[in-house]
Amino acid sequence: MRTTGSSTSDPKALGAAGDAAAHALLCEALAQERPQDPVLSEHGVSGPAPRPGGRVWIVDPLDGTREFSEPGRTDWAVHVALVEEHEVRAAAVALPARGTVLSTRGPAEQAPRSASRSRIAVSRSRPPEFVHDVAADVGAELVPMGSAGAKISAVVLGEVDAYLHGGGQYEWDSAAPVGVARAAGLHTSRLDGSAPVYGRTDPWLPDLLVCRRDLAGALLDAVSRTRAEGSR
């Protein structure tokens, strides 16, 4: 998979080719190592049909195809998560352009946190409108980034303090990053404070908060206030 350099290829074609190649590689490897387990991704289900609450590998072969296709960007990722009984049991997030892999096997090495105001990672292309009000409420700075995996990894590494999303996602967008974040001791929840549930019949999982535990209460309260004011 390309990690550096530029390309004269059409960006959409480059992203599609990278996504397809990564998907084929992951499905082939999992079929060889765990042939009895189904694999769920945005491309559908490979292998046996998933059972409710059963083991399933949830993968995103290329999270951030747009960023992957833009020369010099590093905010794209590859996700692999093992889910059983609706919980992420093991997970890894690769950041190939940075030469970094984060996993549930051990704590991540966090960067020193700045003493300035909190930083919230949000989508660079479609941040939900309410995040501006949430940031103003808690006195935080918004940091646009690419893929969900890259944004959650930035929280794990201490480069930002939180990731706030409310624009719609699927399980493969967050299963592996959430597993890694939980293993690192971070708060992970839906925007109503409930735990995200994986391995469901419907893979739609529209909102998410990943942050330092000491910020969770303030951010959830700010989200609740902002949504209440917006509904008036």
UniProtKB/TrEMBL annotation:
For this entry, list what GO says about its biological process. 3'-phosphoadenosine 5'-phosphosulfate metabolic process; sulfate assimilation
Checking PROSITE patterns in the record gives: IMP_1
Catalytic activity annotated for this protein?
adenosine 3',5'-bisphosphate + H2O = AMP + phosphate
Q: Which UniProt keywords apply?
A: Hydrolase, Magnesium, Metal-binding
Q: Where is the composition biased (Low complexity)?
A: 111-122
Q: Is this entry keyworded Zinc?
A: no
| Swiss-Prot/TrEMBL cofactor(s) | Mg(2+)
Organism's domain of life?
Bacteria
Q: Which GO terms describe its molecular function?
A: 3'(2'),5'-bisphosphate nucleotidase activity; metal ion binding
What would be one Pfam family of this protein? Answer: Inositol_P
Q: Where does Mg(2+) bind?
A: 42, 60, 62-63, 173
What ranges does the record give for the region Disordered, renumbered to this chain?
A: 35-54, 103-122
Q: Identify this protein by name.
A: 3'(2'),5-bisphosphonucleoside 3'(2')-phosphohydrolase
- Organism equals Saccharopolyspora hordei
